[in-house]
Amino acid sequence: MTAESVVPEGAEQEIKTSETDLDELRSRLEGRLGERLGGASAPRVHNLTRPEHSGMSSISVLFDLDWTKDGAEQTAQLVARLAPEEDAYPVFPGYDLQRQFEVMTAVREHGGIAVPKVRWVETSAGPLGRPFLVMDRAEGVVPVDNPPYVFTGWLLDADDDTRRAVQSASVKVLADIHAIADPASKFPALVAPDGQSSLRRHFENECAYYEWTRREDGIRIPVLEKAFDWLEENWPAEPSADVLCWGDARIGNIMYRGTDVAAVLDWESAALAPRELDLGWFIFFHRMFQDIADQFSIPGLPGFLRRSDVVAEYERISGVEVRDLDFYLVYAALRHGIVMSQIMRRRVHFGEMEIPADPDHLVLHHAMLAQLIDDSYDWEK
Q1: Nearest CA to 54 among 6, 15, 101?
Q2: CATH number of the 22-83+96-136 domain
Q3: 161 given a catalytic annotation
Q4: Among the options 176, 248, 278, 324, which is catalytic?
């Protein structure tokens, strides 16, 4: 059974992104990649475009590259990911592209995960005016965020069997990432210093991120601060063992070919942490979108990625029991709440909205988070 695509007014937002001049970028890319390739003839960068649904945490540009190696003509379809410009009011305080390069390379080598090959990373701002990395381009389709895929798109239009297959393939991606053996030795940059608990380190980084978002206006967001307190009061007694966590584990970061996973994207938030960190984010993110559909009285995808189904599927594939999930669901809602508050501040900065009278309204899903905190949220509705 397929659903009807409906995008109500207000479900899709116009969000200001970079005004990058593509012609200038093409010229700079040609110059820098020419140095990298070291060929006898200068490379040619062409078909340079911005994806329709490019994100805000970094900027993606698609391009084709032709060059000569050992007298033979070479060509590649590539993606450049660039850190935001300094005046773009960034969503996050930092963009460690070198770490992304190392994580993606190691996952590709050790995990058998469909991660695009990363060819080059440039950590200095010199060549393009900001750091960037270049990776192979994968082909496929992605469930988009804006407007959320619960309103329109190929996943909504698919039949139930197709969505079940997509769900199973997506949960398997999580299990496969978490199954990478001895992650501390394979991802040394992600190891917490001085024997600190990985979960505590992650939490303290989120506390610091929240304070960073307040650096200009000083606004405190009560629902987020209540969530911080709730998490301290409900800290897991024995968190599960650390695994490699993808960090931004959601279907919007998976590229599909049919019902198969063609590429696993966006590794900038990768961490060593309990597996439930990814599972909480994965379940929360879809349910947040489904709640938005409910608010607009639109069916959406209520039977897709249900909490109980995801947990059962994950435990079946991984052979590992999921623990303390309520904690990680609140943590996911808190983490995304901080991101949303910065995105809203960004919209205020660019004159797209006014600061709301109630600071909690800087968080899109503030009602959901409040219900999670007081244990009144209904996961089975």
Answers
A1: 15
A2: 3.30.200.20
A3: no
A4: 248
